[in-house]
């Protein structure tokens, strides 16, 4: 109990004032937890505020168009979270009459809701005594109890889940879960934690064994693939553009982009321009091709590194289905393309 009591005491003195902590409304808590997956609070908070302003209830989110949802999500990454969020909102609104499942096991049945999110909603909204297990919790538990099991292995998750459940304050599950996650975010940080000021330093086994910076143990490395994307900005005589929606599975599903020439290896500007000249564009021939960056933009995703370049391809005639800048700025784009559009076209059109 000393461990849980110390964490709760620390939390009550140091917690951040965040909007989803001032409510037990499962809609707000669900929304915040989905947004904060693999996202820092400082980055996620503005998105949460925008979403709750645009969609104050689960019914509002359910009735929204997917493009509106993706546009508000633009820049937050991992866009499958937004698509699953929208799908689940429609299920809760239209199939469950707006009432969220109230138990951990029932919450797990929702699309996009895994073990951690289900535990968070169940404990924060419904006070169910189920422990959360996220990156912060792994770190705190592994250091405090000196657990050296490899967290990249599936069996280790079971070990940590059991440990988290053992130390959970069953009478105050919501408070304890918030406390241990906040402690990991602010005090027991990934790099260079301030152990001297830590209220648990006298009983932390990791600190006593001088292993704090080596815990948690994670040996499996994510394999990173390289992709070379050459975006062709087809600009017609009316200064309109061709954009297309990405279809099928993969990165940026249902977001918009310019037509793209993907190559297996990096090509020189001359080689790319030669390939573009051989391509068919609505039976129209370009009158000019301009490289808009001398170097490629490196955009890092969890499993991929994208080397991105932009080439403006100009035409003397009007292209079919082209869109004005006013039209395309309302569409959801991957943030790297959105930033390029803003930097190169926002002030010139």
Question: How do the strands and helices of this protein lay out in sequence?
Answer:
Elements: H1 2-14, H2 26-35, H3 41-54, H4 58-63, H5 66-73, H6 80-94, H7 104-107, H8 115-126, H9 135-144, H10 154-167, H11 173-186, H12 205-208, E1 225-235, E2 244-245, E3 256-257, E4 260-263, H13 269-278, E5 288-291, E6 297-300, E7 304-314, H14 325-328, H15 335-345
Parallel strand pairs: 1-7
Antiparallel strand pairs: 1-4, 2-3, 5-7, 6-7
Written overview of the protein:
- The structure is a single chain.
- The protein is an alpha+beta fold and 349 residues long.
- The protein has two domains: 2-214, Endonuclease III, domain 1 (Orthogonal Bundle); 225-345, Nucleoside Triphosphate Pyrophosphohydrolase (Alpha-Beta Complex), CATH 3.90.79.10.
- It is built from 15 helices and seven strands.
- The protein has helices spanning 2-14, 26-35, 41-54, 58-63, 66-73, 80-94, 104-107, 115-126, 135-144, 154-167, 173-186, 205-208, 269-278, 325-328, 335-345, and strands spanning 225-235, 244-245, 256-257, 260-263, 288-291, 297-300, 304-314.
- The strands form two sheets. Strands 1, 4, 5, 6 and 7 form a five-stranded mixed beta sheet that branches. The protein has a two-stranded antiparallel sheet with strand order 2-3.
- A hairpin with a 3-residue loop joins strand 6 (297-300) and strand 7.
- Helix 9 (135-144) packs across helix 11 (173-186).
- The chain is elongated and about 75 Å long.
- The mean pLDDT is 93.
Short description:
The chain is of the alpha+beta class and 349 residues long.
DSSP strand content:
5-15%
Fraction of helical residues: 40-55%
Q: End-to-end span in angstroms? A: 63 Å
- The number of E-state strands comes to 7
CATH class of the largest domain: Mainly Alpha
- Using only CA atoms, what is the Rg? 24 Å
Give the overall shape: elongated
What is the count of distinct domains? 2
Organism: Flavobacterium cucumis
Function: Adenine glycosylase active on G-A mispairs. MutY also corrects error-prone DNA synthesis past GO lesions which are due to the oxidatively damaged form of guanine: 7,8-dihydro-8-oxoguanine (8-oxo-dGTP).
Enzyme class: hydrolase
Catalytic activity: Hydrolyzes free adenine bases from 7,8-dihydro-8-oxoguanine:adenine mismatched double-stranded DNA, leaving an apurinic site
């Amino acid at each position: 109990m000393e461990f849980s009591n110390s964490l709760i005491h620390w939390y009550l003195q140091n917690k951040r004032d965040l909007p989803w902590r001032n409510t037990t409304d499962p809609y707000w808590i669900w929304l915040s937890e989905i947004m904060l997956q693999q996202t820092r609070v400082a980055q996620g908070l503005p998105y949460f505020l925008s979403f709750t302003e645009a969609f104050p209830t689960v019914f509002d989110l359910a009735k929204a168009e997917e493009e509106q949802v993706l546009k508000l999500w633009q820049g937050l990454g991992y866009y499958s979270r937004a698509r699953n969020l929208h799908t689940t909102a429609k299920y809760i609104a239209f199939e469950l009459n707006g009432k969220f499942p109230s138990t951990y096991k029932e919450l797990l049945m929702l699309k996009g809701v895994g073990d951690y999110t289900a535990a968070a909603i169940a404990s924060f909204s419904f006070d169910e005594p189920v422990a959360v297990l996220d990156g912060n919790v792994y770190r705190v538990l592994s250091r405090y109890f000196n657990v050296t099991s490899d967290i990249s292995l599936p069996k280790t998750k079971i070990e940590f889940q059991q440990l988290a459940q053992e130390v959970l304050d069953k009478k105050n599950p919501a408070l304890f879960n918030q406390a241990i996650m906040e402690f990991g975010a602010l005090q027991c940080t990934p790099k260079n934690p301030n152990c001297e000021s830590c209220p648990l330093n006298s009983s932390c086994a990791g600190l006593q064994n001088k292993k704090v910076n080596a815990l948690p143990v994670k040996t499996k490395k994510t394999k990173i693939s390289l992709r070379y994307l050459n975006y062709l900005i087809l600009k017609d005589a009316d200064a309109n553009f061709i954009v297309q929606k990405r279809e099928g599975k993969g990165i940026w599903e249902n977001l918009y982009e310019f037509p793209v020439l993907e190559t297996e290896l990096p090509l020189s500007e001359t080689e790319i321009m030669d390939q573009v000249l051989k391509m068919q564009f609505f039976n129209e021939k370009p009158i000019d091709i301009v490289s808009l960056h001398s170097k490629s933009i490196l955009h890092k995703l969890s499993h991929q590194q994208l080397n991105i370049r932009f080439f403006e391809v100009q035409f003397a005639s009007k292209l079919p289905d082209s869109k004005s800048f006013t039209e395309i700025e309302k569409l959801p784009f991957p943030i790297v393309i959105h930033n390029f559009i803003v930097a190169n076209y926002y002030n010139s059109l």
